[in-house]
């Protein structure tokens, strides 16, 4: 649990540090989200290499998404994705009802606007992992009630 606490603290500090720099005129807020997503992308690429070095090749895209929802998510966030849906046309919706990077924030509506900051790194993480598995993707996040996200 110590490594989880360190990850949460590091993630919070990355978000806070980038936005603090933006407020001091070193860039605008949109660039912060892009930077966090890029950092996540590189980490996701590295993690997926480590996690899949001993696994058999995946049969198809759905097989890869199941791996992301179970093994990848469990290793990074200590739980599986709660729900995986697909339209069978390349769109997948992953739902985490108690997302670790949002649970330390208040459940109140006043923090809803800050949620995207705390999801950018994870969007990059997923995109980087998928990229190294040969899938080009666009990963977006949506929060309608804290701490759940899609």
> Strand sequence of the main sheet, in spatial order?
1-2
Shape: globular
Which fold name is given in CATH as the topology?
Muramoyl-pentapeptide Carboxypeptidase, domain 2
- Estimated helix fraction: 40-55%
Strand content: 5-15%
Tell me what you see in this structure.
The model has no long low-confidence stretch (mean pLDDT 88). The protein has five helices and two strands. The two termini are 25 Å apart. The longest helix has 24 residues, at 29-52. The protein has helices at 2-23, 29-52, 61-77, 100-103, 120-132; strands at residues 83-86, 92-95. The radius of gyration is 15 Å and the shape is globular. The protein is 53% helix and 5% strand. It is mainly alpha-helical and 150 residues long. It has a two-stranded antiparallel ribbon with strand order 1-2. The protein has one domain (4-133): Muramoyl-pentapeptide Carboxypeptidase, domain 2 (2-Layer Sandwich), CATH 3.30.1380. This is Trafficking protein particle complex subunit 6B. Belongs to the TRAPP small subunits family. BET3 subfamily.
